[in-house]
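User: Hi! I'm working on a homework problem where we have to compare a predicted structure to a textbook description. Could you give me the structure for the chain below?
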Amino acid sequence: MKAEQEARFQEFVRARWSHLVRTAYLLTGDVHHAEDLTQTALAKAYRSWRHVSHSDSPEAYVRRILVNCNSDRFRKRRVREALTAVPPEVAGRDEAVSWADERSALLAALAGLPPKQRAVIVMRYWEDLSEAEVAEVLGCSPGTVKSQASKALVKLRTNPGLAQVVDRPARSRALSGQGGSK
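Assistant: Happy to help. Predicted C-alpha cells:
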C-alpha cells in the first residue's frame, strides 16, 4: 500500500474507531468481542483499502464488513452466548444504578435476538440508518429489514427482563406520588 493510502487508512481508523467499536459492542454484547470484531473488520478493510476508499461511503463499507464478521463468528462456533443474570437488588438505589440496570437488561435482551435481527435493531435504531441503508449494509431487501425489525421488536417488547425494568420507574413514581395526572 502506498504511503498516501496508508495515511488515509490510519486517519479513517482514528476518526471512526470508537464509533465502530460501539456498533460492534451492540452487535456482540461484550467489550472484548467488540474490539476483536472491529480489529478483524479493519484488517479486512486494510487489505482492500484502495477499493474501500473509492466506494461512495467507506464507513458503510466497513460497517458491512463488521456485520459480516459478526455473522461469521456465529457460523463458526454455533455456541450460544449467555450473559449473566441481573445483579442482586441493593438498598438505596440511585438513578445511576437504575440506568445501569436498564442498560444491562437491554443488552441482555439484544443478546437474546438472532444475529440478523440484532444487526437490524442496532443499525436501524442505534445507528439511525434508514431501512434502505440497513438493507444495503446487510445485503438484503428493505422488506427483509422491516420484517426482521418487526420480529425483533415483538421479542423485545415481550422480554420479561425488559418489562421489569420499564415498569419499575412507573411503579416508583406512582408510589412516591409523582406520577399520574396533574
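For your comparison, note the following. Residues 94 and 117 are 33 Å apart (CA to CA). The mean pLDDT is 80. Good luck with the assignment!
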